[in-house]
Specification:
Rossmann fold; 6 helices; single chain; alpha/beta; 4-stranded mixed sheet
């Protein structure tokens, strides 16, 4: 073995031996938690009260350049039309409401009907996505701790709807909010066990951002330039 190799390995061994390691008591606490089937709460956990999650989600999404608002089910269409109006868009591409069973599909169908009634050109996947200005999708989950939306692609729910248009509108039905990513993924696994597994799962945290070699930040290179979430209350419940 060469002297250079030995010196390198000696530095590695020294670094490993002197590592800080886990915080005192954490390993024992984590081990006990694994035995109970859960890990200790994260420091950024939004808390156990679901009533606090919408405000936390909105704050986190806005912190990374997105936007969010809460709305009654009956007002989701007008709010979506107002968002499209602020952007000045005319061509909308959305997931197919028929591919979303239950409240999510009903909500999406209602919003698209309103947008169409406002004179926008509304198409559903798998229509051409390249010239669409606004994509409209429904969140599988919305994560309060980070302002992230989880989308699951599949039949009638093309990935390009959230990727190619300049702007993205995410409908977040009541009950889709989860405190953390771990809990959102656990819920998804439970719901799809023995059933239809999504083609892929996409996590979106605010608008797309890229930086060149000079660290010039540009939005919209690899995804939408704007991301807006509508947190929709149950039908008849108000905002």
């Amino acid at each position: 073995m060469s002297d250079a190799r030995e010196r390198f390995l000696a530095r590695v061994r020294q670094a490993l031996a002197g590592g800080a390691g886990p915080a005192p008591g954490y390993a024992a606490e984590a081990g006990a938690a694994v035995g109970r089937g859960s890990m200790p709460p994260r420091a950024d956990h939004p808390g156990s009260d679901p009533a606090a999650w919408p405000a936390r989600f909105a704050a986190e999404l806005e912190a990374v350049g997105g936007s969010a608002e809460r709305t009654a089910w009956e007002e989701a269409g007008p709010r979506a039309a107002a968002y499209a109006g602020r952007l000045g868009v005319r061509r909308v591409l959305a997931w197919d409401p028929a591919a979303l069973p239950g409240p999510g599909g009903e909500l999406l169908a209602s919003v698209l009907a309103w947008l169409s009634g406002e004179g926008l050109e509304v198409r559903t996947w798998p229509a051409e996505a390249a010239d669409a200005e606004l994509g409209v999708v429904v969140a599988e989950a919305a994560i309060a701790a980070s302002g992230t939306v989880m989308l699951s692609s599949g039949r009638g729910k093309g990935r390009s709807v959230s990727l190619l248009p300049d702007h993205l509108l995410v409908l977040v039905p009541a009950g889709a909010l989860r405190p953390t990513l771990a809990e959102a993924l656990a819920d998804l696994a439970q719901r799809t066990r023995g059933g239809d597994i999504p083609q892929n799962v996409v996590l979106i945290t605010g608008p797309s951002k890229s930086a060149d070699i000079e660290q010039q930040l540009i939005q919209g290179v690899h995804g939408p330039r704007t991301v807006h979430a509508l947190l929709v209350a149950p039908r008849g419940a108000g905002a």
